[in-house]
Amino acid sequence: MRGDVFDLDGATALVTGGASGIGLAIVEAFVAAGAQVAVADRDVDALEAVARRLDVLTVVLDVTDEADVEAVVVTVDAELDGIDVLVNAAGVLSQAPLEELSTADWNRIVAVDLTGVFLMMRAVGRLMLRDGGGRIINLASQLAIKGGSEVAHYAAAKAGVIALTKSAAIEWSGRGVLVNAIAPGPVVSPMTDRMTPQWRADKAAELPIGRFGVPHEVAPTALLLASSPAGDLYTGQTLGPNSGDVMP
Q1: Which CATH code of 3.40.50.720, 3.90.950.10, 3.90.76.10, 3.40.50.150 fits the domain covering 12-235?
Q2: 20 to 30 Å CA-CA from 156: which of 128, 144, 163, 183?
Q3: Are 3 and 30 contacting, i.e. CB atoms less than 8 angstroms apart?
Q4: Active site residues
């Protein structure tokens, strides 16, 4: 054992959306803590870049495709000899006034940001229950708690993630599977880079600390939840590294 407070030595983890942004920062933190990590993403080029830099297993994955999810989970389970930690970091974001929001864009955001989380939780949760326990960490958003202008579809999907997290925690915690969510505030990432400069400026001005976070400032929260004993008493919780944007 490494003897660190956040020690994942010998643990196995699967991180979706792990080739960029917060997902990649979590992958890097887990590898540094001693975990064997599988990185799942739909961006092949980004996966190849991660594989050149880190000693990880990489798999191409579309979290909205049920058959793809099931196949990838079987592969990772076999390659890593079990999955101790699942991080659902795959996500998409777009911007539109509610009255102009298309049904197609609503469905696209919900498919990735909520249904994809459900598909991954169900597939990996079965394995964790089989093996006697595990940790599931879902990336939500502070917008799930406070709402937001021109992001109603995203906020609604992420609110669903928080409700799904709580429900799974109620069902599974007694069988050893702890389920939590992280609700970051605005973070510099490829996802927020797609928003308008005015939106980003307005959001930064709202934050008590006056700036967006960066991915490596969110990753330690995932490390806490994945670690033992540090994360042993957390289940059904939503932790908020959010620059003060939401103060429960």
Answers
A1: 3.40.50.720
A2: 128
A3: no
A4: 154
